[in-house]
Amino acid sequence: MPISRSEKEAIVQELKQKFENSKVAVFADYKGLNVGEATRLRRRLKEAGCEFKVAKNTLTNLVVKQLNLDELSPYLEGPVGIAFGEDPVAPAKILSEFIKESRKMEIKVGVLDGKVIDVKGVKSLADLPSREVLLAKVLGGMQAPLYGFAGVLQGTLRSFVYALEAVRKQRAGEA
Questions:
Q1: Which fold, 5-128?
Q2: What CA–CA distance (Å, rounded) separates 59 from 155?
Q3: Residue ranges of the domains in the chain?
Q4: End-to-end CA distance of the chain
């Protein structure tokens, strides 16, 4: 059943807002996915604060041209779904994990902060550790010198105590 012009305009407007409000958009060929697998993918993305949208390529192409992302036009062939997200890593990571499990999808291209990135760029995004892991590493790096300094101070104090104990034992032996 064909959709009306007003419905098409609403879809174009919604896609445009998604592109403008998201830090990352990952385009994937979803050929071969059944309903259950698509639902599972959408659920995973939703749990991570992301969203998976499927729209006609002609409508997506209109949005791409409005946003001056003409480099994406060649990738809009066949069944294309777009994963949008605020976290730059989450959509790429979830899609990559899902592709490894199902072996039915394929990442085509991505958009990160308004810049088009190729498949290698999307896969390198997926390989990045999560934000929490990166913050933990930074915090650990900041704490390491403090622990080292505390260890040096403890070593100095320990040596001083051992020296005092040796002097005490020596004097106790003389008396």
A1: Alpha-Beta Plaits (3.30.70)
A2: 69
A3: 5-128, 129-175
A4: 108
Q: Which two tokens stand for residue 163?
A: 């020296």
Q: Which residues contact 102 (CB under 8 A, 6 or more apart)?
A: 33, 37
Residue with tokens 């192409």: 61
Q: Which two tokens stand for residue 62?
A: 């209109």
Contacts of 67 (CB under 8 A, 6+ apart): 16, 19, 20, 114
Q: What is the DSSP annotation of 101-140?
A: HH---EEEEEEETTEEE-HHHHHHHHHSPPHHHHHHHHHH
Rounded-to-integer distance, Cα 76 and Cα 38, Å: 19
**What is the model's pTM?**
0.72
Q: Do you know the residue count of the chain? A: 175
Backbone angles phi, psi at 130, to 5 degrees: -65, 165
Residue type, 162: Y
What phi, psi does 60 have (nearest 5°)? -65, -40
pLDDT single digits (tens) 24-62 = 999 999 888 888 998 999 999 999 899 999 888 899 999
DSSP notation for 48-66: TTEEEEE--HHHHHHHHHH
Identify the H or E element spanning 85. strand 80-85
How many whole angstroms separate alpha carbon 122 and alpha carbon 111? Answer: 9
Task: Give the pLDDT confidence score for residue 127 in this predicted structure.
Answer: 85
